[in-house]
Amino acid sequence: MRALPLLDLADLALPLVRETLRGNDTSLIEAALGPYAAAHLPDAEYRQAVLKCVFCEIPLDRVTGLDTRADRELARMLADFAHERIVAGRDVPQDILPFVRAFPDVVGGRAELQHALKEEG
Question: Helix 14-22 vs helix 43-55: angle between axes, to the nearest 10 degrees?
């Protein structure tokens, strides 16, 4: 996985990346989300992979390209995840908050989430 960006594969390795992302081995998921995935995964799949990292407790600073690929839709997905965690009385991973804050409109009228964003800000 880590060697993929060094090879001239164009999109040929995408099936391997996709298969890896379907698994549960966090070290492989993390490796799959390196430079190759950042350059080649379609937006929707990249967003789902980032959300999987959150579920698997993989720190988001290990996801290559997130600083440039994060968008409003990813922020909405992360806001929904955070809201579900808050309602369930569970902690919200702190590394998702900057991405949600970048698109404040995705929070909507969810007071608990607004409070969490201010509290951790």
Answer: 30
